[in-house]
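Incident review: delayed structure delivery

Summary: a single-chain prediction request sat in the queue longer than the usual turnaround. Root cause was a stuck worker, restarted by the on-call engineer. No data loss occurred. The affected request and its eventual output are reproduced below so the record is complete for anyone auditing the incident later.

Affected input:
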Amino acid sequence: MPTYAIIGATGATGSALLTLLLKETPKTTIHAYVRSKKKLLSQQPSLSSNSSVRIFDGSITDVPLIASCISGVDAIFAVVGVNENVPGLRVAQDTAHTLVAALCYNSHILNGGSGVKEFDTAPLPRIIVLSSSSLNPDMCTDIPPFLHWLLSRAFKYPYTDLALAESYLRLHRSWLHATFIQPGGLVEEKQEGHELRLHGRERKAGSIFMSYLDLAAGMIEVAESPDKYDWAGVGVIPTSTNVPMEPKVPLRIVVGLACTYVPWIFPFFRWVGAV
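Output delivered after worker restart:
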């Protein structure tokens, strides 16, 4: 059975991945990276006695820690992210830089500590990166142009962070393998079903929003068919047409627009609990 690493296991996507992997593929080994082990165990107490799950906690910039977490895995789910428009955000970039450094570190060890001579001879895992359909115009063909523009401004900093992280990973295309998962809006709902697509024009999506569980199922499907999606941007779309919008979305858009054009106001929104 495969071994997967989840980088960001306490987030909504990471939690959904854990839930599905433990439920549908119970013999899978999971390496879960989190900033706080206590928080993860409070979310999923059963993990404390689950021998299939190893927990790694600490800073995302701790290269030896992340190298240990991803050692020996078949694929890495990089799902660290922020849903708020935080000025100066770079969590996706930090994750990308650390993963590349950790893979170099592990390759060095695999080559007996004598240096990395041939990257392609080492059994390096594929990185499956959570991105956004907003970064790929071809994935937004069923979204009104004004709405796409509005979202790109309201979530400018997360999208910029994701785009720069992807650009950095693509600098290492000669020896790395990665896939970029590009969903639309995400909500906390039950699993309804998903489809994967490589081009937005292949099929009109039933709904702009989809559940984190459906997203996680799509990411697992990509991990199980690695060669098909090498260095591709893969859309995950819901098969259901009645996934509701999260009630907080309008507020997040308003707050996000304010933070884009008046960045110094973000601490105020955090102080009053709007983010």
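Verification: The first strand starts at residue 3 and ends at 7.
Action items: add queue-age alerting; document worker restart procedure.
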